[in-house]
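Kindly inspect this one:
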Amino acid sequence: MAGPIPTLGNPKNTIEILNKYRFVFQKKYGQNFLIDPHVLDKIIKAADITDQDYVVEIGPGIGTMTQYLASAAAGVTAIEIDRALIPILQDTLQGYNNVDIINEDVLKVDLKELADKKNNGRPIKVVANLPYYITTPIIMGLFEKHVPVSGITVMVQKEVAERMQAGPGTKDYGALSLAVQYYAQPYIAAYVPPNCFMPRPGVGSAVIRLNVYEQPPMQAEDEALLFAIIRASFNQRRKTLQNGLSHVPELGISKELTVRILEEMGLSASIRGEALTLEQFVTFTNLYIRCLKTARKV
């Protein structure tokens, strides 16, 4: 144990610390604090935190999860945007000598530099309780900036978690599913009802673990182009792929070229983007790049 036994996580202690500092919840930050020790234990288990791990926690709130992380990990950096929470964190985490607190918007923090500095460039683990509006930018930022991360364990809105692990042909399948699954293997570790939070959110939540690949099993020659094609394919998901892509002029993919590539892949010209697997999107992107290179040589 790197510090004292966690004291937060039950409603009584949470209310006491909030009252002590006369804390006012900020709706703009999507603040909902966990008040169920069983759920906290599930997150630690899902995150597979050991005393060899360095953890970055995004949105520590009053330090509830941070106490659990600090007791299990070698070290923790907690990044909190709300300045009003900093004195509370300094209070609730004062018994732990392996925690750093950063008062900053995580989207403005160079997490790659932080990992290099705190963990000598070795992969870190990320744990977070994320409001809906910021889930995608944070997770995609970790992937696209190639922050050395071995695992990401996040509490998110139930529907978002289901979208991350959805497969082709399902209603939840979309650009987020493909982006996450390109970089990581997702699985939902637990569903969490609203009564486990203070204040109670209006929707259910889920803990999802993303096991990050060292190298994506399928590699696009141009990742930015891959995701641009994926986004265009789902902008109007009822459209065929050829219509969806042709309506995004900056891609420069004509209907005729789309049909030609699809034929080469053995797919119907009338297929919709929502029916393509991740592997097929990667293949389509790489074939399109090959077509561009061939055209330049002519």
Observations:
- The mean pLDDT is 93.
- The radius of gyration is 22 Å.
